C-alpha cells in the first residue's frame, strides 16, 4: 500500500493547480478583451467607456474559433466579396462612430480594390451600435437599405461626411441617406427600419460582438485575428496578406491574388 501523501505536499500541489488555473483564466480573458483594451499608440477607436487600438499578435493567422464567426451566407446583403474567399474580414462598427467613418473613407476602398475585387477578401459587416438610440436607428436603417440591395450605398452615404456624427440619425436624415443611396421604395424602407426583423438582426450582431469582448468600434477580425481601431492601412494589408499566405498552405487552399 502506497504511503499517504503528506498534508503539506497535497496543499502545495493544490496551490500549483489553482495558480495554473488563474494564469489560464487571465490569458483567456486577455484574448477575449483584446478588442476593448488594445495596446499602446494613438487612440483610433470609440467605445462607450474608452478608446483603444491594437493589432493582433500572430502574423500568420488568427484564432480558429474566432475565424469560425465568418458566416459566408449566400445572399448576405451586408457582405461583399466571394463567399469562398480565402480571407474574411469581419467589421464590428457603428454608424455614429467617427473612427468607423475614417476607416470607411480612408482604408476600406483600397482594400476593396486590392483584395475584394481580385477574389482574395470577403468583408462582412456587423452592426455594433454602442452610442444609444441614434446608433440603433442608423443600424436598422442600413439593414433596411440592404433589403433593397443598397446596404453598401447607404454605408458610403452615411460615412461620406466627416461631420455625420454631429448631424445625428433622425427620421429625416435617414430618409435623405436612403435617397442618396438609391433606395427605390422609401415606404418599404421606413417599414423595414421599424420591423422586428431589423431589431433581431442588430441584436444578433450585438450579441456576437459583445460575446467576444468587442466593446469599442471599429473592431475587426481577419480570419480570426483581432484588430481594434481604424489602424493604418499597412496593419490591414499585413494581416490580409498573412492570412492569404496561410490559406495557400492548406490542402487545396487558394490564397487569391498576391
Structure summarized in a few sentences:
51% of the residues lie in helices and 12% in strands. It is of the alpha+beta class. The protein contains twelve helices and eight strands.
Features:
12% strand, 12 helices, 8 strands, single chain, 258 residues, Glutaredoxin, globular, two-stranded antiparallel sheet
Describe this structure in words.
The chain is α+β, with helices and mostly antiparallel strands and 258 residues long. It has a single domain (33-249), classed as Glutaredoxin, CATH 3.40.30.10. It is 51% helix and 12% strand. The strands form two sheets. Strands 2-8-7-4-5-3 form a six-stranded mixed sheet, sandwiched between helices. Strands 1-6 form a two-stranded antiparallel sheet. A hairpin with a 2-residue loop joins strand 7 and strand 8.
Number of strands: 8
Terminal Cα separation, in Å?
A: 67 Å
CATH class: Alpha Beta
Tally of separate domains: 1
Q: What fold name stands as the CATH topology?
A: Glutaredoxin
Q: What's the CATH superfamily, by name?
A: Glutaredoxin
Any idea what the shape is? globular
Q: Helicity level, as a percent range? A: 40-55%
Q: Which stretches are low in confidence, meaning pLDDT under 50 for 5 or more residues running?
A: 1-43, 48-60
Main structural class: alpha+beta
H/E element sequence:
HHEEHEEHHEHHHHHHEEEH
Round the Cα radius of gyration to an integer and report it.
21 Å
Largest sheet: 6 strands, mixed
Describe how the helices and strands are arranged:
Layout: H1 7-32, H2 34-37, E1 46-47, E2 54-55, H3 64-67, E3 79-80, E4 87-93, H4 98-106, H5 108-116, E5 121-127, H6 133-146, H7 151-160, H8 164-167, H9 171-180, H10 186-193, H11 196-211, E6 216-217, E7 219-222, E8 225-228, H12 233-249
Parallel strand pairs: 4-5
Antiparallel strand pairs: 1-6, 2-8, 3-5, 4-7, 7-8
Helix pairs in contact: 4-7, 6-7, 6-10, 6-11
